[in-house]
Amino acid sequence: MARPSRAPSFAGRPDSLGPVRALTLEQPEWTGHKDFVPPDMARPRETEPLPAESVDTLVIGGGVAGSCVAYWLAREGIEAMVLPGGESSTMLRLLDSTGLRAPLEAFVRTRPVLGTCAGLILLSREADRLPRPTFGAIDMTVERNGWGRQVHSFEDTIDAPTVARDLRGVFIRAPRIRRVGKGVEVFANYQGEPVGVRQGRVAAITFHPELTEDRRLHAWFVREVAGLIPAEAR
Ligand code: GLN
What we know:
234 residues, alpha/beta, 3-stranded mixed β-sheet, 21% helix, 26% strand, disordered N terminus, binds glutamine
């Protein structure tokens, strides 16, 4: 099925998609990943601020995961964005040093976004020990590395009845959500605490959905939050 195409809303771009460039910040290993060597991707050098209007697709962090998302977005055009996991302090520093904070914030203010793990931290109103302010797109307070160190990372079934049954969550140095504001809907819980939240067009989860084969959460985001048709239904 043909899919409507809409131009991204980055800083005054005209209403045409043009060549899509995807950027993945933080972890360079995508270049060597066997499945993902998209030719139209460029990784910015930290020292060269990028003109905002040259950015069509922006994926912050996440290494291979981020690259997968970037690849998908680069092929499909930009309707929505996933801010994947990574290291939120590094991601925020890089956003400033590359000049990408403003276009990313503009996107987050106007378009559907799913933040996962460090992406959730970026979207939160408050989080601890960060060098720069977060975006404040979801009214919540987050504790970084709330489950402990890398060795305390784990996988378990989470409770997200409106998304899918028996959804597995992979928690890697995951944040914990300590407070949610009145306007925030909790759609996923683990052991009685929120691990998935949504405020309007912006959703966020503390775990990594891309590390299992299960794409139901992504499909839910595309369909229910972004109001688009998931790839498998086209
Ligand atoms: N601990 C990381 C942070 O605070 C998040 C980890 C992740 O994204 N898997 O940014």
